[in-house]
Amino acid sequence: MLPLRDTIQSRRISIATWLIIIINVLVFFHQITLPDDEALNMIYEYAFIPSRFVRGIFNPRSYIPLFTSMFMHGSFLHLISNMWSLWLFGDNVEDNMGPFRFILFYILTGLIAGFAHFISSPMSNIPTVGASGAIAGIMGAYFMMFPHSRIVTLIPIIPFFIRVPAPIFLFIWFVAQLRSGIHGNAIGGVAWWAHIFGFLGGVFLYKKFIKKRYRRAYRS
Question: What is the domain partition of the chain in residue ranges?
Answer without folding.
Answer: 2-218
